Amino acid sequence: MKIAKLEAIILEVEVKNPASDALHTYDAGRTVVTRIFTDEGIVGYATTHIGRGKPTADILKMLLEKELAPIIIGEDPFFTRQIRKKLWGVADYHGVEGLAHFGVSAIDIALWDIVGKAMNLPTAKVLGACRDRIPAYSMAGWYYGGEKDFIVRCLAVAEEGFKAIKLKVGRYSLEDDIQRIKAVQKELGTAFPIMVDANQGFDEREAIKRGRAYQELGIRWLEEPLIPQHKENSARLVQALDIPIAIGENFYSKHQFYDAVKAGAASVYQPDNRRAGGPTEWLEIGAITDAAGLHIASHGGGPANVNMLCAIPNAIYLESGSLKHENDMMATQLQMVDGEVLLPDTPGMGTEVRSDFIKAHRVD
Ligand SMILES: [Mg+2]
Predict the structure, then answer these.
(1) What keyword terms does UniProt attach to this protein (predicted)?
(2) Residue 37 Cα, ligand 1 centroid: separation in angstroms?
(3) Can you tell me the distance from the alpha carbon of 228 to that of 241, in angstroms, rounded to the nearest whole number?
(4) Cα–ligand 1 centroid distance for 99 (angstroms)
């Protein structure tokens, strides 16, 4: 089998009620769909969501089609590690990390979609599955227009069946954080697992101060308190606090995970399949963190993340939005049973996008 063509298309969905975290507002609503066609008729898919900065999607499309596609045309899609090496070789001149790795990751996911489809198996089984379902939490607790909206959305995902929720913190005062946490605990009980995410909003001193307050409230983990570059500062948080520190959504490739693990920067690592890489890189990130006795949770949901988490022994959680919403564009619909999302039996990564959705939302 040979790769015949790569196509990157941009979809756009209007964001009616933009959600915010401590520092950012997500209003772009764009997705780059990467399609890799083979000479045997199998087509591999990857989706790259762009939450902020609409032009990012245009740049990624150009990078995929003009720079990376010519490298892979004519290659055997089963040679995922060889293809990754060639892509690193061409992206190396301007830097592999950053947007170039969005491209490398999308290609790797689409290749593993082809591999799974060729073998007529979900990719997790081709990779060597260790489970067929993964506990999921919902990231429902963003900053919306008003407090009422926030509680309504948190209760809706609990009603839907999620057995853990993540709340954004750090946009305002510590008192505001505590009020948000207690408002959810009042509705769902103090035993209901809650994670908090500061999205890089603190410095080390502030993270220690707020971390102590979160651990008093029984919070499951404190996510991304610092900028991703501050791995040694993060290691000092691990020493100073009892609450687990979770980081990694802004790390590119196994090398940044390796540096963080060496520094002792966290207990939970959260690869993002746009930035960290595809299954090829995830298996290696899984191995590095597993060897160090640490855990993996995805940054982001959908069938691609479910396939990767089901193949990583130290995975503990899938991040997800409401499945009603997450399933909108995908041909494969995820199912949740008792708070766990099931590995879909769709051959491949489950990343195929519905053709009617593409038709309705394609802008380039
Ligand atoms: Mg986060």
Answers:
(1) Magnesium, Metal-binding
(2) 33
(3) 18
(4) 18
* Token couple for 188: 């769902």
The pTM of the whole model exceeds 0.70: yes
> What spacing in Å lies between the alpha carbon of 53 and ligand 1's midpoint?
18
What pairs with residue 330 in β-bridges? 353
From first to last of the 364 residues of the chain, give the pLDDT tens digit.
999 999 999 999 999 889 999 999 999 999 999 999 999 999 999 999 999 999 999 999 999 999 999 999 999 999 999 999 999 999 999 999 999 999 999 999 999 999 999 999 999 999 999 999 999 999 999 998 766 788 999 999 999 999 999 999 999 999 999 999 999 999 999 999 999 999 999 999 999 999 999 999 999 999 999 999 999 999 999 999 999 999 999 999 999 999 999 999 999 999 999 999 999 999 999 999 999 999 999 999 999 999 999 999 999 999 999 998 877 899 999 999 999 999 999 999 999 999 999 999 999 9
CATH number at residue 104: 3.30.390.10
Beta bridge partners of 44: 36
In angstroms, what is the span from residue 224 Cα to ligand 1's centroid?
Answer: 6
Looking at 168, 230, 231, 254, which residue is catalytic?
168
CB atoms within 10 A of CB 169: 30
Same domain, 324 and 280: yes
Same domain for 208 and 328: yes
Active site residue 24: no
Residues spanned by the domain of 84:
3-120
Backbone angles phi, psi at 301, to 5 degrees: -120, -150
Catalytic residue among 230, 231, 299, 361: 299
**Sign of torsion over alpha carbons 203, 209, 213, 216:** positive
Residue ending a domain, choose from 55, 89, 120: 120
